[in-house]
Amino acid sequence: MTRWTPLLVATILSMTAPAFSQDKVVHFSSINGQTGQSAAYGSKVIEGVNLAAKAINDAGGFADKCGARYKVKITTGDMANSREQAVSLLRQAAADASVLAVVAPSPSTGYVPMVPVAGQLKIPIIATGSAAPIKEWNPWAFRLNTVSKVAVPPLMRTLKAKFDVKRVALVYDVTQDGQRGEAELIKNTAKDVGYEVVAFEAFRAGDNDFRPQLSKIKAAKPDWIGIYGATPELAKVVTQMAELGVKAEMITGFGTFNDPVAWDLTEGRVKGGYSWSAYFALEDPARPEVAKMVQLYKKEYGHDPTLYSFYGWDAVHVYVEAVKRACTPTDRDKFRQALNTIDNVPTLSGKATFKNPPDGENLSAAVIVNQTTGRGTFEAIK
């Protein structure tokens, strides 16, 4: 018969206590463009992802509805603007049983080919800026951000109603699915909205001289120019427009003119440009959570966040909310089902709602038609 002496009880308690107090770890893979032409967006998403995890962990982690506590682990992979690399990194993540889900790329170059593979491997992914159309969704793929097919019609109708847009020229990156796709949407929407596309000029990621395309555009005499490329190329287009004396109102998508980096690279020439975006601001008295994130971000990285930083931050917090509901750090199917219970959950960039099937689009994604008024600031156009 065991005698329960104080020493024996203390020994048993010391042996069993860690099992009750130790936090679990929820492991997310973060795949994005750290190098190459996608780095302008991808690096900001990665910073947002890592900062969100750090902030959660520094606050002591989080608890699920079943009472278990968690810390967040992030593993980062560089897709380097390569479809093949993006898919390879996804396969690596899926092969690691500790990885619950993937924060997927902002460039459509990576996200679009990952969608069918995520379905095959049965691992949840969520896009952080990709806007290209998905031909066939599956229940494992989600997208946090607003997409072009939703945003372009209200953008062009709003501009037509307010400014009577008549002649539009487009210059776009043919190598980037999302940028090319939006330029094509504006072209295809012309007849319905009531404007004419007078020039449709392509370039490639990494190009530096856009004067040939801009000279053709200048000759076409547009009153509006749509510029669709990653921030470095877009900034060069805007700068060379000024050099050539191309005078027209500017349009872009994804809130790129509101990116502080775009402002800096163009020395403020993006001021007055129009775009659509999700919510983004460096300060907002009505939303103290924005100022808190911006302060943390600047302290951690020494520069301002962008909308893509918000997407990275938001993706982690949406995933954490799903873990709280699913009560698991490893069951991918249970976690996927929990994502479909996300309904109007507040995020920095707006709200999140998922019901997949039929698709993984964010049903509450914001669409704000806006004009850039300063570095990282804009005014909504109604």
Describe what you observe in this structure:
The protein has helices spanning 6-21, 39-58, 83-95, 108-121, 148-163, 177-193, 211-220, 231-244, 260-265, 288-301, 307-326, 332-339, and strands at residues 24-32, 62-63, 69-78, 99-103, 125-127, 141-143, 167-173, 196-203, 224-228, 249-252, 274-277, 345-347, 350-352, 368-374, 377-380. By secondary structure, it is of the alpha/beta class. It has two domains: 19-145 and 286-364, Rossmann fold (3-Layer(aba) Sandwich); 149-277, 3-Layer(aba) Sandwich (Rossmann fold), CATH 3.40.50. It has a seven-stranded mixed beta sheet, sandwiched between helices. Strands 2-3-1-4-5-6 form a six-stranded mixed beta sheet, with helices on both faces. Strands 12-13 form a two-stranded antiparallel sheet. Strand 4, helix 4 and strand 5 (125-127) form a beta-alpha-beta unit. The longest helix has 20 residues, at 39-58. The radius of gyration is 23 Å and the shape is globular.
Structural key phrases:
382 residues, alpha/beta, Rossmann fold, seven-stranded mixed sheet, six-stranded mixed sheet, 12 helices, disordered N terminus
